[in-house]
Design brief:
It is a single chain. The protein is an alpha+beta fold. The protein is 63% helix and 17% strand. It folds into 2 domains: 46 residues, YefM-like fold (3-Layer(aba) Sandwich); 48 residues, no CATH class.
């Protein structure tokens, strides 16, 4: 979504515009004498335009890499259910705590 404001309104409401852009990702076009002069856009949008990765892109890449590593290690084996993993972790924790007594 895009919003257009005058240069005067942008100057007067810059903090509000900046917050709105940061929160919603909305782009604000600033006009002077009815002519678009600049755009205010989120840092993620700016990085995307420059060809840089956003933090989310990096997070997704890390997640995909981790998924590939797990698949390579397990082969055709199935992952245990989350319930089973939590049960095992609790057993290990309980054993550890019991050994400290």
């Amino acid at each position: 979504m895009e919003r257009t404001v005058s240069a005067t309104e942008a100057r007067v409401k810059f903090g509000e515009l900046m917050q709105r852009v940061a929160d919603s990702g909305e782009t604000v076009i600033v006009e002077r004498d009815g002519v678009p002069r600049v755009a205010i856009l989120s840092i993620d949008s700016y990085k995307h335009l420059k060809g840089e990765e956003s933090p989310w892109d990096q997070w997704l890449a890390n997640l995909r890499h981790l998924h590939e590593r797990i698949r390579a290690e397990l082969g055709d084996s199935q992952l245990p259910s989350s319930v089973e993993i939590i049960r095992q972790m609790r057993e290990e924790r309980d054993e550890h705590l019991a050994s400290l007594r």
